[in-house]
Amino acid sequence: MSNTAKYLLGLDGGGTKTIARLIQVDSGQEWSAKCGATSLTNNFALAVENIAKICNTLFAQAHCAPENVYAVLGLAGACNEKVKNTLEATLPLHFCHVEVVTDAKTSLYGANMGKPIAVVALGTGSVGMRLLDDNTEVLVGGWGFVHGDEGGGAQLGLMAVKQLMHEIDANNQHHCPLGQYLSKQLGQDRQSLQQWLAKSTPTDFATLTEAIFALKTHCEVANNVLARHAENVEKLISMTVSDTNLPLVLMGGLAKPTIGLLSKTVVGSMVDAKGDSLDGACLLALQNYQRMNGDGLTSYAQ
Fold first, then answer.
1. First to last CA, the chain
2. What are phi and psi of 229, to 5 degrees?
3. Which one, 140, 254, 276, 277, has least CB within 10 Å?
4. What pLDDT, on the 0 to 100 scale, is given for residue 1?
5. 214-263: per-residue pLDDT in tens?
């Protein structure tokens, strides 16, 4: 007997990892899965492959067909309309309904469960967004690694790598702890570092962030890099909140270590998130289900 139950699917995809949740509408039963990067601007082909992979994993777990699924895919790079439209045209899945949005939007709706809020998300990249009382959404940043993403992990890693480049240019010796660490990981001279740079991705730069934070207390260079990182984050926060009185939520994998670098004024304006980007994707999927079915559901299970 075929499974004709209805399902909601929320997906949160970035430059490093992707998580997704499938929910059976009537029972509220949930299934979850993880996979690698699905940033549309970093590697489009890989993103399509991983989206299909993680969705099919969930469909197999729940024994359901995509034709019965209302999906919201929150993806880094989805602010590029051309790329988003290409994804919708090439995705090898036939959902009952699918909406592709930015991971900034899913973070926004998850942070305060659809109520007015300002959100800054720090992961491999960075982006800000605010939701106003009239449901107006304002996007700030999210330009991608090449042209923006200041405050994100990839740009933080790039700043550190540039310090190594400066050391090589100066005397080809690595005196500071950060330079010593990076030279061991990436290359100790110009030729080996250039080989690494030629193949590096935003994800590669972002993987350096943990070491940079670890060196903060005993490396002046690492401390200076983190100070510039904090300035970039505070600038993004200021532009995101703008002239509103909205409470602020800092989200993403880089949020927790970054908070300790920010001013007391900025930290004082923050509130705890009620949910995350994946929760926001699921909430948006529920809203689409309600709108298309005239259903008064306020939660997943009746």
1. 23
2. -60, -45
3. 276
4. 35
5. 999 989 999 999 999 999 999 999 999 999 989 999 988 899 999 999 99
Higher pLDDT, 76 or 96: 96
pLDDT at 270 over 60: yes
Q: Which of 98, 96, 4 is nearest to 51 (CA)?
A: 98
DSSP assignment string, the chain: ------EEEEEEE-SS-EEEEEEETTT--EEEEEES---TTT-HHHHHHHHHHHHHHHHHHHT--GGGEEEEEEETTTT-HHHHHHHHHH-S---SEEEEEEHHHHHHHHHTTTSSEEEEEESSSEEEEEE-TT--EEEEE---TTT--TTSHHHHHHHHHHHHHHHHHHTS---SHHHHHHHHHH-SSHHHHHHHHHH--HHHHHTTHHHHHHTGGG-HHHHHHHHHHHHHHHHHHHHHHTTS---EEEESTTHHHHHTTS-HHHHHTB---SS-HHHHHHHHHHHHHHHHHT---SSS--
Cα(240)–Cα(128) distance, rounded to whole angstroms?
Answer: 5
Domains and CATH numbers, the chain: 7-113+275-293 (3.30.420.40), 153-268 (3.30.420.40)
Contact predicate 174/164, CB 8 Å: yes
| Contact yes or no for 297/25 (Cβ under 8 A) | yes
C-alpha span between 124 and 153 (Å, rounded) = 5
More confident residue, 22 or 172: 22
